[in-house]
Amino acid sequence: MDxxxxxxxxxxxxxISRRNSPELLDSVHVVRDVLERHGVTVLVEDATARxxxxxxxxxxxxxxxxxxxxxxxxxGDGSLLGTGRDLARWGAPVLGVNRGGLxxxxxxxxxxxxxxxxxxxxxxxxxxxxxxxxxxxxxSGVVLARSTALNDVVLRLGxxxxxxxxxVWIDGGFVYEQRSDGLIIASPTGSxxxxxxxxxxxxxxxxxxxxxxxxxxxxxxxxxLVVPGNSMIRVVIGEAGPADAIVSCDSQVDLALARGDEVHxxxxxxxxxxxxxxxxxxxxxxxxxxxxxxxxxxxxxGGRGS
Length: 306
Fold this sequence. Notes:
Blueprint: E1 12-17, H1 25-37, E2 41-44, H2 46-52, H3 61-67, E3 70-75, H4 77-87, E4 94-98, H5 113-121, E5 125-130, E6 133-139, E7 142-149, E8 152-157, E9 164-170, E10 173-180, E11 182-186, H6 194-197, E12 209-215, E13 225-228, E14 233-237, E15 245-249, E16 253-256, E17 262-267, E18 272-277, H7 282-289, E19 295-296, E20 299-300
Parallel strand pairs: 1-2, 1-3, 3-4, 4-18
Antiparallel strand pairs: 5-18, 6-7, 6-17, 8-11, 8-15, 9-10, 9-14, 11-12, 12-13, 14-17, 15-16, 19-20
Helix pairs in contact: 1-5
């Protein structure tokens, strides 16, 4: 984790709200008010501007990445996933205001927007680089489709209740053939998402590693596998498999697969730069969001023998 920034660097700030969510507008207004009080130029995403009313001019989302020193997303982790895929290549840091569920990525609490955002604008913040994955669907040597993913790339079936047959290769070396409900290929960021529910390992966001987690494999010896972050993972869909397999990126972008198709997964060229409040701790997030609190001798443990 990087050291706290020592001086403010955010002059042009983009503002994005979860789409089609007017109930979040109260938080959007608070964020904009704080930014304007600090003399920051605010650029509102066009879809968010339409929710704010006809008097509000907006700009396309990708233009925010090109013009802004910081982009603020009001929503949950799902909103940050989409923003991350869209804006990572621009290098603009992204801050999340959590109006969703667990909020591993969105760090600012809705009832502390003024306090926490003011501290960040004053230079008291941390920045973590989270790498993305890129999935490419290859058929007969031709790339048919591609998408990035901040959390995970998941191979699974559509509506058919059958097992998926596939083979996995890493850096040109054969790993295994498998029949299972699917396969999750997760970044460290995604290790606390879908991969966690499938029994995968929790990885610190700073790790340069990728987790490969089978989903209900038809063998007792198949276990999650952690490989170096620069690995090239190739998954070949079995010829005998069903024809409605898909590869899903962050559960938001679905790419169709046919028998014999290959899915190539590797680290994306540009990371997402996530902004956190000063003092943010990944382990504290795990304790609070995954209920890691324990009692020894009737007392809750929380550091320094408390």
